[in-house]
Amino acid sequence: MYPLLHITTLLHTLVIASATVVPNRVNFDLHHQFNLPIPDIRPPAYTPTPAISLKARPITVYRPKSLDAHEHARLRSLLHAETEPIEWEQMVVSGPDIEDRHTLSQLARMTANAYQLPGHKNWYDLDPSWNANASFPFGWDNDQDGFRGHVFTSRDNSTIVLSIKGTTLQGPTSKKDKLNDNLLFSCCCARVDFSWVFSTVCNCYSWSALHQRCDDTCLSRALIEDSLFYNTGVKLVKDLIFLYPFADIWLVGHSLGGSIASLLGSTFGLPAVAFEAPGERMAANRLHLPLPPPIGNSSRPPVPITHVYHNADPVPQGACTGVASPCAQAGYALETRCHLGKSIVYDTVQKLGWHVDLRKHVIKQVILEVLDLEDGWPDEDGNEWDVPVAREEEDCVDCFKWEFGDYKDKDG
User: Fold this and answer.
1) Buried b (16+ CB within 10 A) or exposed e, 96-120
2) CA gap 343, 386 in Å, rounded
């Protein structure tokens, strides 16, 4: 479990700011980690370094009027295949300005910091005025839990950023990271081919001489496990909402962490930015997440999710597949490619001459060679933008070679 102590100690230092006015900038200036005082050692002529300013903008979100009713409806659908109506509340909140290059770059640095504690060589200083105590961690006290990251707060506690760690290939969380990857992003229990029969993460495959079949009910029930990071994340977000009742809460993450941030953002109606994340639309369906109904001409639910990735990374495109792929060789079945919300896709293949390569998935390379690049990014009409335009992924289909149904009941 994440250490609640690090969170509850903040109750004694909170200064809650009213959120009636949506700010257009968020000034981050964290100063606290383990409730230790920071001495004032400034010389008389000291001039404070201005805090980095992240741009924010008002966005419309749809939230369930009752979180308990939302969870009850989800479990009723998952366990009993029965629908239950959800009441949604429309509101305007302050969200990250996804069209601003610097804002995306800073949020990406927060996602990178979810992989280590302050003081580590790979830790990013978000601003010269900040130090290693610029956030408080969660999940680092228990190697077996796996769900880790950091919580960043604005100077007046009006904005909270929850940054969720992605997959670690070799480390204490690797086993659970892989379990979550293969449960959420594989077509059927990480069964790539017949040779994976002893490496699958659930028993939902239904044998057929002519077709690849997978049991839908079995898949959904496999996602009830407490080891699923989504379930742990729901508890953490509820705690943050309780501790910061008037704050705007943003969610960010890289890879697996980005997909979890998206699923949690869709659950609570919170803005989320996911970097290089596998497609999580199918996972949302299998989790039976109640989502707000489509609006206007869109066929997709209006969730406040933004995916950011480039087209030389095979992971968010569902292209690291097949027995010979590096993902499969490492034991990962990352087969989904359809995302919730909108996606910002950087054309690094055309602009930078990159080839599709799993090594381009690393967040450090994304930050330094893509997000920090000051050149404009052209669209299909020849217009250049600091950040590519965010678009919905229409006509996207996952796992088209598979057939899904209630095959286990028929076979049994």
Assistant:
1) bbbbbbbbbbbbbbbbbbbbbebee
2) 15
Q: Tokens for 345, please give them.
A: 């896709």
Sign of CA dihedral 215, 217, 220, 224: negative
Residue count of the chain: 412
Among the listed residues 220, 255, 262, 325, the single catalytic one is 255
Measured between alpha carbons, how far is 23 from 250 in angstroms, rounded to an integer? 14
Q: In angstroms, rounded to a whole number, what is the distance separating the alpha carbons of residues 300 and 394?
A: 8
Going from the C-alpha of 167 to that of each of 19, 151, 170, 193, 341, the distances in angstroms are: 34, 18, 9, 23, 22
With beta carbons less than 8 A apart as the criterion, state whether 289 and 266 touch.
yes
- Distance separating alpha carbons of residues 387 and 286, to the nearest angstrom: 32
Other beta carbons within 10 angstroms of residue 95's beta carbon come to 22
pLDDT one digit per residue (tens) for the chain, 412 residues: 444 434 433 433 333 333 334 445 544 333 333 333 333 333 334 334 445 567 899 999 999 999 999 999 998 888 888 888 999 999 999 999 999 999 999 999 999 999 998 888 888 877 543 333 446 899 988 777 789 999 988 777 788 899 999 999 989 999 899 989 999 999 988 876 555 555 678 888 877 667 788 888 888 888 776 568 999 999 999 999 998 899 899 999 999 999 999 999 999 999 999 999 999 999 999 899 999 999 888 888 999 999 999 999 999 999 998 888 899 888 898 999 999 999 999 999 999 999 999 999 999 999 999 999 988 998 888 889 999 999 999 889 999 888 888 876 554 4
Query: Between the CA of residue 230 and those of 40, 131, 142, 164, 262, what are the distances in Å?
Result: 41, 30, 17, 11, 10
Whole-number Å distance between alpha carbons of 230 and 71: 13
What is the maximal distance between C-alpha atoms in the chain?
A: 81
Identify the three-state secondary structure at position 235.
helix
Check: CB of residue 118 under 8 Å from CB of residue 133: yes
Q: Is 259 a catalytic residue?
A: no
Edge-to-edge strand order for the sheet containing 402-405?
Answer: 205-206, 212-215, 402-405
* pTM, to two decimals: 0.85
